[in-house]
Specification:
Blueprint: H1 2-27, H2 44-51, H3 53-86, H4 90-105, H5 108-121, H6 128-153, H7 156-164, H8 169-198, H9 201-206, H10 214-222, H11 228-267
Length: 273
């Protein structure tokens, strides 16, 4: 009875979460111009979407921005997580972690406004570069949070064993530490990419000079009335998100299998002879 209740609760919960998305996807095929009633099936909104070159350009700019910010934030965040984990002073280490967590819980409006003030005071023109810096800034704490747990659960005996075998610090980092924390690095990259892709509040403050992102453009168009062309675009982005999740899952599963195979070869060397 408890299992049945739990299953019903989970079905209700996920139905509640996904119902608006499926409603949006359904009406992307509506022959009408609004979401007020179903008037038949059509592909016309997708045709309008692919003929709107301005919107396609914004989508490409948003993807480039998300990819660049995620790559840079993942690199900087990985180095930051390694440095924080190596701190011997407990007070200093906890201070760094607290500063990182403060950025995670700070309202996006405050972060966006503070970055806008910073760019204005420094005389930095708003545009792609300012938006890129802003996205890197709020993505780095996310990457650090994804990687630190992997570093903390890593046994120091692995590093000691590598050094006993003659490995230097660079070899330990490249052949022991980085492969071990690679799932955390990959998770941090995908989280940073996703946050950059759908961010609105921070981006709204730091865009300018003709550059905009998809979230800001959708907001601007929604103020004039939501077109079903946006439904079509949202449907495509939702499908891309599903593909990315499946891709991450497959990579993670493959990495886990490879790790288990290596452990098996290390623990059972005599059984293969």
């Amino acid at each position: 009875m408890k299992n049945k209740t739990a299953h019903l609760y989970l079905i209700f919960l996920f139905a509640l979460l996904y119902a608006p998305i499926f409603f949006l996807v359904l009406y992307s095929f509506n022959a009408g111009t609004t979401m007020q009633g179903w008037q038949g099936f059509t592909w016309s909104h997708y045709q309008e979407l692919f003929s709107d070159y301005h919107l396609i350009e914004i989508v490409l700019d948003t993807l480039v921005l998300a990819l660049l910010s995620a790559l840079i934030a993942t690199t900087v965040g990985t180095v930051g997580a390694l440095l924080i984990n190596r701190q011997k002073n407990r007070i200093w280490k906890n201070t760094l972690l607290s500063l990182n967590n403060v950025l995670l819980v700070s309202p996006d409006v405050i972060i966006g406004a503070s970055l806008l003030i910073l760019f204005t005071v420094c005389g930095f023109s708003l545009g792609f570069i300012s938006t890129l810096f802003a996205h890197i800034a709020f993505s780095i704490p996310i990457v650090v949070l994804m990687i630190l747990p992997r570093l903390q659960e890593m046994s120091h005996s692995l590093i000691d064993a590598a050094k006993d075998l003659g490995a230097n610090d660079q070899q330990v980092l490249s052949q022991v530490t980085l492969p071990y924390i690679s799932p955390g690095i990959l998770a941090g990259f995908f989280m940073a990419f996703t946050y950059s892709l759908d961010d609105f509040a921070v981006t709204f403050f730091v865009t300018g000079n003709g550059f905009t992102t998809l979230s800001v453009e959708i907001y601007s168009r929604a103020r004039q009335g939501v077109s079903l062309e946006i439904n079509a675009l949202s449907t495509i982005m939702f499908l891309v998100s599903i593909i990315l999740v499946l891709f991450y899952y497959l990579i993670n599963q493959r990495a886990n299998r490879q790790r288990k195979n290596k452990l098996t070869k290390m623990v059972l060397p005599g059984e293969r002879e």
